[in-house]
């Protein structure tokens, strides 16, 4: 936070108190310096500002170079500190604006220089920048957990499980995607639980509804948390790699809570049709119960979700509805964006109720009314997903049928060639409508194609 300082002041503060500067490495720090002509001078100047234990990697920040014609440096320490060496102090404003626009780092104001007056100036300076057109702060990710704790725990879980799970993965899906996503979610949940609950491992009893392959359940179990997974379809990997965990193959009916009454944390990891039901279910379990959900495919209580405002994307409108439902059920909750390899990264985490324990019985009694209000139906029921999803993209057709269709269409095309013609491409195109018409005489082929998504 050195916009108001000259180079000598910066260096004196940093060299004299490096342990103070880098004691808490979760901040993004901008330092200004003299113009440096070569990479070696960059390295020499910055090396003196880090503790010897920090492993530093240097790369030229190409986005700055393209935008300004100058060569800036991006420097990462072991705890992801960002340091930008600015060639001229007069370009600080432009650089701060540029870095945020290109999402290079999230601007943070810290008390590094122990000067209240300076920090007030910096805050005013940044607030002024924020009023500029097109000036946007990057939306923070994993904002509900301590970055340092998250980083260390994720690294531990990755080292502990990633290679082992990948080596024994016996499903047709991509293991890397699931492994890194579920390791991230497990890390996030453990950080949330351990920071908000005393003796979290003995208190938390979770159930993952719609657990899929069960990897998240397995990781949390291995880390000492009691819980199980339930899904409408069993996976082979439940009984092989994840045999030490507890799973149940069953369609979960949100109106029948016997299966989950003994749990105090509900997990909805891309729970699709069940997502809007989680506040309802959690309300009915107990006053102490909470839930974590990552909304994915948009569903209402009893049908596919359809947006009312054409100005919003379906996903944005869906998140707004889920937020409204959570509020209607009286939960205290926060919204966050997770660091996971997925296009759907927004999550909601509850932390109790907005009403007193004495009001709890009345809230349970009116929970059905909330479902009716949002679904537009009395006694709305959750959509039942088929256990076996039929593949209808023609990839499962019998090869002989495919060959017959190709031959049939090919023969029709050949019939357009004039008799006795020896010229190349002397035939004519035929419209698909004519092919459909002629296929009616081939009942078996016609019916087989109609049963597929895509048909002919």
Give a summary of the structure in a few sentences.
With 456 residues, the chain is α/β, with parallel strands linked by helices.
Largest β sheet strand count, sense and barrel closure: 7 strands, mixed
Quantity of strands, as a count: 11
Rg value: 30 Å
> What share of the residues does DSSP label as strand, in percent?
5-15%
- Shape descriptor reads elongated
Distance between the terminal alpha carbons, to the nearest Å? 64 Å
Order of helices and strands: HHEHEHEEHHHHHEHEEEHEHEEHHHHH
The portion of residues assigned to helices is 25-40%
The structural class is alpha/beta
Strand order of the largest sheet: 7-6-5-8-9-11-10
Number of helices: 17
Residue-averaged pLDDT, rounded? Answer: 74
Stretches where pLDDT is under 50 for at least 5 consecutive residues are 1-8, 14-43, 45-123, 129-137
Describe the structure.
The chain is an alpha/beta fold and 456 residues long. The chain is 39% helix and 12% strand. It has 17 helices and eleven strands. It has helices at residues 7-16, 18-21, 39-47, 62-68, 92-101, 116-130, 147-167, 175-196, 200-203, 215-222, 278-285, 314-328, 360-365, 367-375, 399-414, 432-439, 443-450; strands at residues 29-32, 57-60, 73-76, 82-86, 205-209, 226-231, 246-249, 265-269, 290-294, 331-337, 346-353. The strands form two sheets. The chain has a seven-stranded mixed β-sheet with strand order 7-6-5-8-9-11-10, with helices on both faces. Helix 7 (147-167) runs antiparallel to helix 8 (175-196) and helix 8 (175-196) packs across helix 10. The longest helix has 22 residues, at 175-196. It is elongated. It starts with 6 loop residues before the first helix and ends in a 6-residue tail after the last helix.
